[in-house]
Specification:
single chain; mainly alpha; 2 helices; ATP_synth_b/b'su_bac/chlpt; transport; ATP synthesis; CF(0)
Length: 161
């Protein structure tokens, strides 16, 4: 059977307690402290990663807002350019139409003046022929201004009919 000596049991117990205290002081405390530091470093890294993620999301939202604003400004600039182009086009067309109408009016006035001149020339030629015919019929020369006026009045009345 086993022989248990009380002194051996007592010294073994004391050795175990001293061994436990030494291990606790030199092994357990540094390992626990190292594990707490590691846990804290991991938690800090996770919180920094979360903060960086939130900052990136905020920056992304800000960039999207800026992009939308820039697109809106670009659309507005394009719309203004189209409107300005349409105004200039309308102004050019209006100016061209006014110029064309002025040219037509000038041409019409010139044609009317030429027509009047031609009619006047024709009347003078007809008057001269009438005087010449009257002179031949009457056998005398018709040079006097009164005779000319009489023939021109006759032609004018005949032209109004």
């Amino acid at each position: 059977m086993l022989n248990l000596d009380p002194w051996t049991v007592l010294w073994t117990g004391i050795n175990l307690v001293v061994l436990y205290l030494l291990m606790r002081h030199f092994l357990f405390k540094p390992v626990t402290a190292m594990m707490e530091q590691r846990t804290k470093a991991i938690e800090d890294g996770l919180s920094q990663a979360e903060a960086a993620k939130q900052a990136a999301q905020a920056l992304d939202q800000e960039n999207e807002a800026r992009l939308a604003q820039v697109r809106g400004q670009a659309d507005q600039i394009v719309a203004q350019a189209k409107l300005q182009g349409q105004r200039e086009y309308d102004q050019i067309i209006s100016s061209a139409q006014a110029d064309a109408q002025a040219i037509r009016a000038d041409a019409q006035a010139q044609m009317e003046a030429e027509r009047r001149q031609m009619l006047q020339d024709a009347q003078q030629q007809v008057a001269a022929l009438a005087l010449l015919a009257a002179a031949k019929v009457s056998g005398r020369a018709m040079d006097q201004a009164g005779d000319r006026d009489l023939v021109e009045d006759f032609l004018r009345e005949a032209g109004d009919l």
